[in-house]
Fold Leucine-binding protein domain-containing protein.
Amino acid sequence: MRDTKFRFVPPLTAAALLLAVAGCGRGGDDGGTAAQGACKGQQTTGITATSVKLGGIYPLSGPTSAYGQIPKGIKAYFDYVNAEKGGIGGRKVDFTVRDDGYQPPKSVEEARRLVEQNHVFALFQTLGTPTSAAVMQYANQQKVPQVFVSSGASKWGADPVKHPWTIGWQPSYSSEGRVYGQYLKKDMPNAKVAILYQNDDFGKDLRGGFLDEIKGSGVTMVAEQSYEVTDPSIDPQMRLLAGSKADVLLDVTTPKFGTQALAADANNTGWNPLHIINNVASSTTVLKPVGFGRVQNVVSAAYLKDPSDPQWAGDAEMKLYGEKLRKYAPGLDVTNSFYTLGWASASAMEKALGAMKCPTREGLMESVRNLRNVRSDLLLPGVAMNTSPQDGYPLETLQLQRFKGARWTLFGQAIDTRKAA
């Protein structure tokens, strides 16, 4: 029997964006209901001795609906933990998902429903930069944890004092951009680069990190084009970029537009740049519609093990993932990296919940801001979660990868961008 609840409820019709600042308390003992001692007076909404309620917000519909596959991996992980581990510290996970269509006003509406109607303990894995930014204001006003945001925007860790209830998870987009800049400075020191980027904090963060890294080097930007997430196509932008005859195309897109950019590049016989595609659009589900034969040697960066890579066939974490995904989510393709992303982030949440000194919202935030070399399942070797009250970026290590045959192949060494900065 599966205990995890995975529900889709249509959005409300209105919401207000609220802004305030809140602080976290410190924990004490590990009780199951209203905590004693140092935990007294802290928020226990959504958590009991036997259950914990989490709420996620994803674009199950709309132009970025490919990301709607991620919560299926999360659900499978929590189903496995509930059924075979008795939950997390004896608490079964009740995971509810809302659809925001990647529209910030709807994101806040759904956050309100999760907090005020479902009474969740925490918002876990709100996806997207503009959408999660809108939720951040509401979550911090309400003093509700917004934990392990599914976005690499730098803002999630930029000001823990102003936004103490929000923390990201994946490597920052700015750091990823720096990694690509370092790669080109070493391997193509005189490269001329064209940039395609989504016109929001996501696209601007990665673009900014890249441009900062190449400043003063022989690598130069010769053309750039942006697009809006509501655009039907990026073909006009790709035609203009092709006219630059750049040596490199830096593709900073979400999955739908990543597929379009790869296809446009492959169809342009007069332009053959090195195509670098950012991590969030690097899933094989993005590449497959273009045809694997047409996306050979595309470069990206990774922090998770690729389920389609045979080097992980004997890996204990990958074997567990494959076995349990088939058991608790039959019919899903175990090689889909969106499911591994969901699985890995749910594993990280298990670690954070299990490390709470107090079973309270304040206790959770203390836990996620004090991670020390903590691994969650499916992270690449050398990648671990590290935070402090001043450092809100759990993962900051990436490794370059190149698409060969029908899968990604890692190359070079893992790059800790904290040390590289």
